[in-house]
Design brief:
homodimer; alpha/beta; Rossmann fold; 6-stranded parallel beta sheet; 27% strand
């Protein structure tokens, strides 16, 4: 590709700012616009916002609809929300200006069964304007759905798929520890879990992506959040957790066909969790047991895959795409 | 897919026969033809040839050009040879009858740099007849090229890719043990290696596929075959190997950019080889170390992936495709 790809960064939270940093490292990409609704960010240089060594000479704009029309770009990196309902009008605005989209919106990763109406509407709009829309990330989008699906490619038969993503939260940043409930009492944890604020978003979408690829129709999915409870006191950088309090989260997604549990996704993140890993187990012919000891760092991998996805999304057939129906995404940069 | 996919099996060696068996297990596939040039196989029922419990009511035909014209099919599974030059006229015949192709021909997996003339001719022919041609398999095609490439999708940067495929040949079938030189003296091994009959075909193609995906231009590739030598006597099912004789093969492919070794592929198969595994190591940001302890059985996985590839190849854009530019292949069967 000789001409550079023109990218708009839409959403400048932690993932959006890291995305700016990663985008500047690619010699085939030009950042041509940045959009965020936060008045404190509007007008700020994106280099400063992303804490890069130097300003980039490009300021955040707030009126997204007008800005979108005026910016001549190939694709928008959309990192605003996990919610399909909230992201829907943003997507419609973007595609109506003829721009492709790569997003980290978890609920957009495979919305065909969770919200077929919005999925159909977004797909139709993307086709109308001849652009492609993809949501991806490390999880959902890669480790717990795309990668196990790809591994079944060498299987003669598949009966059951299990994925474990086990993380030791001891040395992770404070917002991550807070997000998984570290230091809460069990009742506090249960309350937050019920409200949905402790939930990792995406297990259901991951199960649907796996099942759709395998040709399975899941009759039921469950997604249950449990606390990991300290059996002895534990000290992390910013927390002292007493015995009986919460060390983190253990979330399990289960998908069923004919009453059998055919997909099991285990997402566990807790202080002091032993043997952190990403692991894929396929019960089939042959059985496959694949492990990444230590696991893959989530924030970095999510930003990397959305940046790596950019040229693939631009070249994809128009419509709302999933990781199962586009060409493989890989890192790409001339050495 | 409600209508069944009509498949011709072309080439009825061990892989072709196993492919017949796997094809019969898929409810979305009909085998509608079988072709082989061996007079001993022509006229034989393919169920008998594949040692299935029952004949399938379909006999092997020999005049491939005429047979191809007469058979109404969507795709041909082409398992005749490892050689690009030998498979080229077969492919031209097949695509001229409007049929897609999935092949196990190792040299066809990424021929754009090893033989750009034939690659261009096959690509043009496939486009002319609006069909797709893909070569795949477990290796080359998956473990040592596609899978590492896919893993770089979550990387911010990649400096070096290493893949190890280490197999213990102790309990493998006799032809495999013979193929890797078990029981030869070192001079016998060297002679066969020089002739090319001991070589695993595909390391160079795998390196080119990885490099093309990463946007790297390899200035040099090497592919060196060494014997694994017994330091003490060893007994396998059909061999007694003396100390100093050959236990198997250790083949290493290396790819270079700017004088640096950026791709290393290690294929080692020997009697008594400890710690058999498939392992992918990416030196980058982040580093990735992924392992499948025990490794994946090659013959089964190759047949599985060509059968799994069938619906994907049929739906691909026309032309000579590679694993890096088609939608991901997964197992698929309604539970």
């Amino acid at each position: 590709m000789d001409e550079k790809i023109r990218v708009v960064q839409y959403g400048l939270g932690p993932i959006g700012c890291k995305s700016i940093e990663f985008l500047t490292e690619r010699n085939h990409i030009d950042i041509v616009g940045a959009i965020d609704s936060d008045p404190k960010k509007v007008g700020v240089d994106i280099g400063d916002l992303a804490t890069l060594p130097e300003p980039l000479g490009l300021r955040v704009e707030d009126n997204s609809k007008e800005a979108l029309r005026e910016i001549n770009a190939d694709i928008v990196v959309l990192t605003t929300t996990s919610s399909l309902e909230q992201i829907c009008p943003q997507i419609l605005d973007i595609v109506s200006t003829g721009k492709n989209i790569v997003s980290t919106c978890e609920e957009l990763m495979y919305p065909w069964l969770t919200n077929p109406e919005i999925a159909g509407m977004l797909d139709a709009a993307a086709r109308e304007y001849n652009v492609s829309v993809l949501s991806t990330g490390v999880n959902p989008g890669f480790l717990m759905d795309f990668l196990p699906l790809v591994m079944t490619g060498v299987c003669r038969n598949v009966n059951q798929v299990t994925v474990e993503r086990i993380q030791n939260a001891q040395f992770r940043r404070l917002p991550f520890q807070t997000k998984i409930g570290v230091g809460l009492t069990v009742p506090q944890f249960e309350e937050k879990a019920t409200q949905g604020s402790l939930r990792h978003v995406g297990l259901t979408e991951s199960m649907h992506l796996i099942a759709s690829g395998l040709g399975w129709r899941l009759e039921e999915t469950t997604d249950i959040v449990n606390p990991v409870i300290a059996s002895q006191p534990m000290v992390a950088s910013s927390f002292t957790v007493k015995s009986g309090e919460v060390l983190g989260v253990n979330q399990i997604g289960r998908g069923y066909v004919n009453g059998e549990e055919v997909i099991t996704l285990v997402f566990k993140a807790a202080l002091g969790e032993p043997d952190p890993r990403d692991r894929i187990l396929i019960n089939g012919v042959p059985d496959i047991d694949m492990v990444i000891p230590g696991g893959i760092n989530g924030d970095m991998a999510t930003c990397a895959i959305i940046v790596n996805a950019i040229p693939v999304v631009i070249q994809s057939p128009p419509g709302l795409r999933t990781m199962a129906d586009i060409s493989p995404i890989s890192f790409s940069k001339r050495l």
